[in-house]
Design the sequence.
C-alpha cells in the first residue's frame, strides 16, 4: 500500500508550482460553491428557510466551511511566508538600528515572523544580545502575538474587512507607541543582571536557502499545527453566532457594555489581562458580545488585552526582566489598549 | 550512545519533541540519553532563539518547532 501512496504524498514537494496552481484554483472553486451549497443543504432539510431555525442553520452551514476554508488558505500562505522571516533574520534586520523607524519595522516584522509565547524569553535575550534596542524589542514582542494571521482572518471572516483592518492598524499602533515609550523610559537597568552583562554577539543569519517545495512543506506543517488546534474554538464561535443570529434579541448587552458606560473599557481590559487564550479562543466571546450590542471599541480592547498580555507570559518574562520593567510593560500596553477602546467608541 | 538535549522552557511543544525523539530513537535501535534544558540562560548559550531546539552531542541540529519524524530519523541514521 505504502508503495502506492508514498509518491502521491510526495508529489507536491516535487512539483511545487503545479501544486500551487491546482490548489489555488480548487480553493477559489470551493469558495464560490459555499453559498449555493449551504442553501441547498438547508432546503434539503425539513425546516422552513424563513424560520428562526432555518436562518440559524443556513448561517452555520455557510459560515463554518467559509471560515475554515479562509483560515486554511491564509495559514498555509503565511506558513510559506514565515519561512522567509526566521527570528534570526528579523534580528539581523533590526540589530543596531536607532529607535523610531525601527519600532515601526519591529512591529511590522512581528506580523510575519513565526512566534510562540513559549519562545518569548530566548527571543528576547537573542534580540537584546545582538544590540536591538530595548524599546524596539518590545515593539516586536507586543505585536507578534497580538497581530497575527489567525486573529486577522477570523475578524475578517466573521465581522468584515473593516474590523480586521482596524484591528491591524490599532494593534500595530499600540505595539509601536508602547515600544517607543518603553525605550524613552531608559529601563535597561531593569533587565536581570545576567542578561545585561551578557557579551554582545553579532547577529548572524544562518544560510537557509529553502526550495519552493520545502516552503510548501512549511505551509502544510502550519496548517496541521494551527488549524488542527483552533478549529473547535471556531466551531464554538460560529455556533454561538448562529444561535444569536436566529434567536437572541439585539442590544441585550448594550446597556452594560455599550458606548455610554465609561467604565466598560477599563473593565474589559482588567478582565482580559489575566485571561490566557489564543486569538481563536477569544473569538466566540467576541462574537457573542458584539452580536448582543456591546460597543466595538470595548470588545476590541478586550480581545487585545487577552491576547497581548497574559499572566503566564509575565511569569516567563520575570526570568529576564525585573519587576519594575514588567510593571512598566503591562502599564504602558494596557494604557495603549485603553486609549484604543475609548477612541474607537468615540469615533464610531 | 547519543546525548540528546531538548531546549525549551517546558511548553507542550517541547514535551512533544522529547517524546517523539525517544520514540524514533527506540524504533531505530539507537541508545540515547535525554535531557531537558529549561533554563533560559543555558538555552541562549546554544545561540537558539526559538524553541523547542534540539542539541545532539553538543551540536544544535534543530530550532523553532517540533521536528518532523523524517528529520529526527535523519539524525540517528547518519552515523
Sequence:
Amino acid at each position: 500500500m505504502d508503495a502506492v501512496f508514498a509518491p502521491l504524498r510526495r508529489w507536491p514537494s516535487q512539483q511545487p508550482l503545479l501544486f500551487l496552481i491546482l490548489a489555488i484554483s480548487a480553493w477559489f472553486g470551493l469558495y464560490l460553491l459555499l453559498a449555493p451549497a449551504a442553501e441547498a443543504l438547508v432546503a434539503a432539510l425539513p425546516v422552513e428557510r424563513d424560520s428562526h431555525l432555518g436562518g440559524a442553520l443556513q448561517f452555520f452551514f455557510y459560515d463554518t466551511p467559509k471560515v475554515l476554508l479562509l483560515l486554511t488558505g491564509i495559514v498555509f500562505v503565511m506558513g510559506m511566508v514565515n519561512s522567509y522571516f526566521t527570528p534570526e533574520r528579523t534580528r539581523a534586520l533590526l540589530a543596531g538600528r536607532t529607535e523610531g523607524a525601527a519600532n515601526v519595522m519591529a512591529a511590522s516584522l512581528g506580523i510575519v515572523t513565526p512566534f510562540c509565547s513559549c519562545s518569548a524569553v530566548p527571543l528576547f535575550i537573542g534580540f537584546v544580545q545582538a544590540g536591538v534596542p530595548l524599546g524596539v524589542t518590545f515593539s516586536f514582542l507586543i505585536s507578534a502575538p497580538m497581530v497575527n494571521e489567525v486573529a486577522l482572518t477570523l475578524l475578517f471572516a466573521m465581522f468584515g474587512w473593516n474590523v480586521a483592518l482596524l484591528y491591524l492598524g490599532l494593534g500595530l499602533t499600540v505595539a509601536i507607541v508602547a515600544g517607543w515609550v518603553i525605550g524613552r523610559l531608559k529601563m535597561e537597568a531593569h533587565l536581570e543582571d545576567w542578561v545585561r552583562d551578557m557579551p554582545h554577539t553579532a547577529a548572524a543569519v544562518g544560510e537557509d536557502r529553502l526550495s519552493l517545495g520545502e516552503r510548501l512543506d512549511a505551509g502544510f506543517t502550519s496548517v496541521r499545527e494551527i488549524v488542527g488546534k483552533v478549529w473547535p474554538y471556531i466551531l464554538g464561535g460560529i455556533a454561538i453566532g448562529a444561535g444569536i443570529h436566529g434567536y437572541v434579541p439585539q442590544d441585550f448587552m448594550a446597556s452594560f457594555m455599550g458606548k455610554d458606560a465609561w467604565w466598560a473599557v477599563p473593565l474589559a481590559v482588567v478582565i482580559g489581562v489575566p485571561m490566557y487564550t489564543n486569538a481563536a479562543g477569544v473569538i466566540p466571546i467576541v462574537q457573542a458580545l458584539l452580536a448582543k450590542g456591546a460597543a466595538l471599541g470595548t470588545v476590541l480592547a478586550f480581545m487585545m488585552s487577552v491576547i497581548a498580555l497574559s499572566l503566564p507570559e509575565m511569569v516567563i518574562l520575570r526570568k529576564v526582566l525585573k519587576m519594575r520593567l514588567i510593571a512598566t510593560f503591562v502599564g504602558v500596553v494596557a494604557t495603549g489598549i485603553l486609549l484604543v477602546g475609548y477612541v474607537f467608541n468615540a469615533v464610531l | 550512545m547519543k546525548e540528546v538535549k531538548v531546549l525549551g522552557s517546558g511548553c507542550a511543544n517541547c514535551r512533544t519533541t522529547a517524546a517523539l525523539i525517544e520514540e524514533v530513537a527506540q524504533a531505530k535501535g539507537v541508545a540515547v540519553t535525554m535531557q531537558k534544558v529549561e533554563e533560559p540562560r543555558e538555552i541562549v548559550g546554544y545561540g537558539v532563539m526559538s524553541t523547542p531546539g534540539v542539541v545532539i552531542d553538543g551540536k544544535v541540529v534543530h530550532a523553532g518547532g517540533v521536528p518532523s519524524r523524517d528529520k529526527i530519523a535523519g539524525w540517528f541514521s547518519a552515523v
User: Anything to note?
Assistant: The interface with chain A takes residues 7-11, 13-14, 40-41, 43-44, 47-51, 64-66, 68 of chain B (CB under 8 Å). The helical segments of chain B are 12-27, 40-45, 69-77. Chain B has one domain: 2-77. The first strand of chain B starts at residue 2 and ends at 7.
